[in-house]
Aldo/keto reductase
Amino acid sequence: MSKRELGRSGIQVPLLTFGGNVFGWTVDQAASFNLLDALLDHKLNFIDTADVYSSWVEGNHGGESETIIGNWLKKTGKRDQIILATKVGKPMGEGKVGLSPRYIKEAVEASLKRLQTDYIDLYQSHDDDADTPLAESLAAFDALIKEGKVRAIGASNYSAPRLAEALKVSKENGLARYETLQPQYNLYDRKVYEEALEKVVTDNGLGVINFYGLAAGFLTGKYRTKADASKSKRGENVVARCLNERGLKVLQGLDQVAEKHGAQPGQVALAWQIARPSITSPIVSATSLQQLNELAQAATLKLDDADIRTLNDASAW
């Protein structure tokens, strides 16, 4: 498995990142353990989660994904074999939100406890916090790195101006900087990233681990008619958002390239992202070993210039 560096952190990761949002949501602990075992078999050892996963499930409170990963780490003793990323900032209860130094210190201890580890490889701001000065948040993250609790930090859901400002604040104050960005990016959702964020990333040598790599399943070709909305819990939203003239053009492009390579549309969609110079490792999830086996093959699928042009034209914004 080829590897790429996360920004300038020195941390090497595979070409695909596994999204742990499914743990404690669409897969239970036993199935999660099977997926984690299989990920290592595929040498896909970069796991991204968040403290808030999966609080949206009835009966959950957040922390379920981290807890499952922690239980797996305790059972297997394989902490040194994985690169572990998590996030802070989304609402986790009364007074537990944002990026104040007080809350960052509280939240990281809670995550470390749930994950049953003494360090996090990549600790990310899940949302920008306009109410806390960037210098204060970054100083808190810097302290965690110096304490050995965090190896590197990253940002998710930041606008281009705020990301650039954060990098400037780090440089001016001698603080640890965001080494990664986690934006929404895929063949359907290109504009926001390509219009402004990509330049900030490339100018500053940041790594990019984009989420919704398969546009919530749309880019697998699973949703081609309105009737397909019934295929999953997310189906209605996916069909309402993506099943339009442009979305159908994207699927046609994916079908064309997939047929040429004897591949699946989802594999092609991920291979297109991997081939983009500014992208480090797209995030993708699976809920079964069969899905995981299929997705893993995207890391070895090489698209040529004609394939890239076909997909770029089909998804032009």
Observations:
- Residues 245-261 form the longest helix (17 residues).
- DSSP finds eleven helices and ten strands in the chain.
- The two ends are 32 Å apart (CA to CA).
